[in-house]
């Protein structure tokens, strides 16, 4: 169903009426908050007086960077000093009025500020309190600063090339995967709170989110613990190449009798979509033209 959004008009969407106190900064938390706002939630972004670091990026328009604007769309803003009693009192009042708290400080920071989940869970039982961190809240690396590049390295993103040459994905992919995971987890917790009247603490680790994202197709040799499981070669998406490799290699397209052929049925059926996004030629027959 299509629904027109009018600027300045009341919010619409499935999360209309849900208030989110967004204490997060940089990428992973703000993107998750923006997704909730896109669905109608009233997201209030809480910043220090110095502002989120992402405000200072480029290009700029109206004193705000493009990335900051994208990640904090549809939100309202509030500046407070959480180090002062007055600032903590304002934040406390905001949390008490919210359905969701979203934060991505290092583990324990909100507790030390007196704004942790334990402070509110009894007086506000339906509260969904979502915390994003790097590698979890316990363990030797829990309190280290973590950025997207670090998670790409330790999760395996940098090892996806089949030639064993480590390479970063040229995008903050782990931040964004974590944001998607966080937004989904928050909505699930809200659904549970509506059904049961009980909120919960939701913890999202960037490392967990990245591994979950990678696992189905890149971790096949680590899934089964049985003895004697035959390993398989690493996934190689060069099967989707536009220039053929070795003739007869598994699922690799090659030219035969002026037609594209492959041992992979999916590629045969869908080659026209991935080959320069051109429609199949007139008279194209999947079975005939893809027969090995």
Any overview of this molecule?
It is a single chain. The chain is of the alpha/beta class. The protein folds into two domains: 19-216, Crotonobetainyl-coa:carnitine coa-transferase, domain 1 (Rossmann fold); 237-290, no CATH class. Helix content is 34%, strand content 14%. The protein has helices spanning 28-38, 66-71, 85-97, 109-112, 117-120, 148-155, 173-196, 206-218, 265-274, 286-290, and strands at residues 19-22, 42-47, 60-61, 64-65, 75-79, 100-103, 128-133, 200-205, 254-256, 259-261. It has a six-stranded parallel beta sheet with strand order 5-2-1-6-7-8, with helices on both faces. The protein has a two-stranded antiparallel ribbon with strand order 3-4. Helix 6 crosses helix 8 (206-218). It starts with 18 loop residues before the first strand and ends with a helix. Residues 243-263, 271-280 and 284-292 have low confidence and may be disordered.
CATH architecture of the largest domain: 3-Layer(aba) Sandwich
Largest pleated sheet: 6 strands, parallel
| Order of helical and strand elements | EHEEEHEHEHHEHHEHEEHH
Inertia-based shape: globular
Fraction of residues in helix: 25-40%
Strands ordered across the widest β-sheet: 5-2-1-6-7-8
Give the oligomeric state: single chain
**How many separate domains?**
2
Terminal CA distance: 44 Å
The share of residues in extended strands comes to 5-15%
Rounded mean pLDDT is 85
Helix/strand/pairing class, anyone? alpha/beta
CATH class of the largest domain: Alpha Beta
Please, what is the CATH homologous superfamily of the largest domain? Answer: Crotonobetainyl-coa:carnitine coa-transferase, domain 1
- Kindly state the number of beta strands: 10
Radius of gyration (CA) equals: 24 Å
């Amino acid at each position: 169903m299509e629904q027109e959004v009018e600027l300045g008009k009341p919010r619409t969407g499935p999360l209309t009426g849900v208030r989110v106190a967004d204490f997060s900064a940089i990428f992973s938390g703000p993107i998750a908050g923006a997704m909730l706002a896109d669905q109608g939630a009233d997201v209030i972004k809480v910043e220090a007086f110095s502002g989120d670091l992402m405000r200072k990026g480029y290009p700029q328009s109206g004193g705000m960077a493009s990335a900051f604007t994208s990640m904090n769309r549809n939100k309202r803003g509030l500046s407070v000093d959480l180090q002062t009693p007055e600032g903590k009192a304002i934040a406390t009042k905001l949390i008490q009025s919210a359905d969701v708290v979203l934060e991505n400080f290092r583990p324990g920071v909100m507790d030390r500020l007196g704004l942790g989940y334990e402070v509110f869970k009894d007086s506000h039982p339906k509260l969904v309190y979502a915390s994003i961190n790097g590698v979890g809240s316990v363990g030797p690396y829990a309190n280290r600063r973590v950025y997207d590049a670090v998670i790409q390295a330790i999760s395996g993103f940098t090892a996806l090339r089949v030639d064993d040459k480590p390479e970063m994905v040229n995008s903050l992919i782990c931040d964004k995967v974590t944001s998607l995971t966080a937004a989904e987890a928050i909505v699930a917790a809200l659904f549970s709170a509506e059904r049961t009247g009980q909120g919960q603490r939701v913890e999202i680790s960037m490392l967990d989110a990245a591994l979950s994202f990678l696992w189905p197709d890149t971790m096949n040799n680590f899934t089964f613990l049985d003895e004697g499981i035959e390993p398989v070669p690493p996934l190689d998406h060069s099967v989707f190449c536009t220039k053929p490799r070795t003739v007869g290699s598994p699922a690799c397209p090659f030219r035969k009798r002026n037609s594209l052929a492959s041992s992979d049925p999916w590629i045969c059926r869908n080659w026209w979509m991935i080959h320069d996004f051109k429609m199949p030629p007139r008279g194209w027959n999947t079975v005939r033209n893809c027969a090995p």
